[in-house]
Amino acid sequence: MFAFFDPMYFVFLAPGLALSLYATWKTKATFSKYSKVGSRNRMTGAQAATLMLERSGIRDVKIERTGGWLSDHYDPRKKVLRLSDDVYSSNSLSAIGVACHEAGHAMQDSHGYAMLSLRSALVPATNFSSMFSYIVLIGGFLLQSDPLMLVGVCLFSVCVVFSLVTLPVEWDASRRAKVAMDEVGMLSPEENRHASKVLNAAFLTYLAAAITSLLTLLYYLFRLGLLGGDE
């Protein structure tokens, strides 16, 4: 039987799905709220990221504009920090918070932060596993083959590990951003608190994703009978 027809699937996944929905709503609502609040110094997201990188002595990272909503990210392979349109040229507290968070990833890369290196190393295996794990698992369900399901579970476990490793990486990047925004003085204490709310809401989405993937893994183990369940 497919996982999505099994009532136990929803029993296992309900908490994670509920948290994911809340995290998505919270992130959008918080970003939207503080995207309407401009910083007193009128600094844009791109300028904030540049200042944070310069403060850290990082000269080899380019800052580029990219399309999409909240598509901001740091590419450690190309040493490029990409900021979405809503962040790059905006002087809102949301834009500054997000830009500094991404600059935090560049700082991690420059300082040799171990968890970022581990996450980057996991990317190829995670891409492969996310592509084939569900195919193998569905095949195992259809054929009622425990060995095949076990292979699928092992593949899916790589995705779970990636989600868990992502948590300290994202938390540390936000921590670096909060410290920089405070020490450099780009935001007032009150503005810093508001920008931090944006970062905290965004982290909640990573936490929800990690919990959901972990609960999904537990469900598959249950279906294999390793947690007291049966086929």
What does this entry look like structurally?
- This protein is 71% helix and 6% strand.
- The chain has helices at 7-34, 45-55, 85-88, 93-110, 114-143, 146-183, 189-223; strands at 62-66, 73-75, 80-84.
- It has a 3-stranded mixed β-sheet.
- It contains 7 helices and 3 strands; from the N terminus they run H-H-E-E-E-H-H-H-H-H.
- By secondary structure, the protein is mainly α.
- It is elongated.
- The chain starts with 6 loop residues before the first helix and ends in an 8-residue tail after the last helix.
- The protein has one domain (3-223).
- The mean pLDDT is 92.
- Helix 4 (93-110) crosses helix 6 (146-183).
Largest sheet: 3 strands, mixed
**What order do the SSEs take from the amino end to the carboxyl end, as H and E?**
HHEEEHHHHH
Class of secondary structure makeup: mainly alpha
Number of domains: 1
Low-confidence parts lasting 5 or more residues at pLDDT below 50? none
Keywords:
mainly alpha, 7 helices, 231 residues, 3-stranded mixed β-sheet
SSE map:
Elements: H1 7-34, H2 45-55, E1 62-66, E2 73-75, E3 80-84, H3 85-88, H4 93-110, H5 114-143, H6 146-183, H7 189-223
Parallel strand pairs: 1-3
Antiparallel strand pairs: 2-3
Helix pairs in contact: 1-7, 2-4, 4-6, 4-7, 5-6, 6-7
